[in-house]
# Entry
Amino acid sequence: MPVIKMADTELSGKRVLIREDLNVPVADGVVTSDARIQAALPTIRAAMHENAAVMVMSHLGRPTEGEPEEKFSLQPVADHLSEALGTEVPLIRDWIDGVEVQPGDVVLLENVRFLPGEKACDESLARKMAALCDVFVMDAFGTAHRAQASTYGVAEFAPLACAGPLLAAELEALGKALTDPARPFVAIVGGSKVSTKLHVLDALAGMVDTLIVGGGIANTFIAAAGHNVGKSLHEADMLDTASKLAAGGEGRADIPVPTDVVVASEFSADAPPTTKSISEVGDDELILDIGPRTADQLGQILSGAGTIIWNGPVGVFEFDAFGDGTRTLAEAIAASDAFSVAGGGDTLAAINKYDIASGISYISTGGGAFLEFVEGKKLPAVEMLERRAGEAR
Ligand code: ADP
Ligand code: MG
# Structure
C-alpha cells in the first residue's frame, strides 16, 4: 500500500515534526561520525525551504526512560546540525508540552528516549507528540521496525502523517531489489551468528539464485559439511539448520561453501595469518576469513549478478590480515553492473574501510530494519503510514 510523501505535502507555515535517526557516535561531547546527520540534512533543508516550522526528534543511545543523563543528550548533535545547516539549531530540553518555533526555523528536541512511555508506545505520550504538529514526517528507516511513541504512535494521532524523502528512497531502493529483481540475484550474508540471521538466511534462500555465506555463519556451514572448524566461532546447535539450507532444492538458492580459508592460532590483530584448504584446519585454529581462491570464485559470481544484497562482512575485517575476503567481495560488488543494496552496522564500516561506497547503488541506513525488510516483514512504522494514507483518501 502506498504512503503519503513529504514531497507531495503542503508544508508552508505548518508545524512539521520530523522523526530522524540521529543516533550517532559521540565522544567527549563531539560527534565522531556524522553519516546519519548528513543523510537527514536534505529532508530538514527541504522542510525549512518550504517555510515550515521544523521540529526534529531522535533517540540517542539507550538511556533509562525518565532518567535523563547528560551523556545521552542530543546537544552535540544540535551543535553539529547548526554548523551543517549554517543556522543556529537550538536544543529544546523540555518539549513534550509545547514547542515554540517560527516558520523557516528548525529546533532539535531532546532525546525521545528520556520520556517515560517512548519504548512501550504509550498512547498519552504519542498523543502529546502528535499535538505538537500539523504534519508528522517519519524519516527514520533505521527505527521503522520498532513500534514506539516517536515512530508509530505519533503517526497514528498526528493530523497528517507522511514519509520523509530518506525513508521513501530507502523503501523504493529495497523494494526495487526485492520485487522482480534482475537475475542472477546474489545475496551475501556474513557476520558472526547463524542464529541471529536465521530468518534472513531462510528468506533469502527462497529468493536468490546464489546465497554467499561468510564469517561465523560460513563456519557453521563448513562444520555442517563435515569439516573440522577447530576453535572457530560457529554454532554447534545450528548444524542441522545449516545442512537443510545447504541442501537447497526446487526454487532454493545455491549456497557455496568456502574451499579455502585464512586461519590463525588466536583471535588477535597481529596473529600471523595462514591460508589453508578447508579440509586442513587444525583443532587449535580459528577461521578468521575466507581464502583467496574462494574470494576470487565468489567475486566472479558477483561480477555476473543482476542484483546484489549485502549484509555482513565475510571475515574479521577489523584486523587487516583477515580483511582480504571482505575487501575482494566489496570491490567485486562495486565493480559489477548489478543493482546493489548494502546494509548493517559492520557492513557499512567495511564499505568505508575499503572506500567503495560510490560503487554501491544504495546503502541502507538501517541495520535491524534492513534485515526485517529483507525477511519480508512489514515494518510497523511503515504500516502505520500506509494506514493513514488509506484513511486520507
Ligand atoms: P552487520 O553489523 O553488518 O550486520 P554482524 O554484526 O552480523 O554484521 O557481524 C560483524 C562481525 O562479525 C564483525 O565484527 C566481524 O569481526 C565478525 N566476524 C566476521 N567473520 C568472523 C569470523 N570468521 N570469526 C569471528 N568473527 C567474525
Ligand atoms: Mg553488527
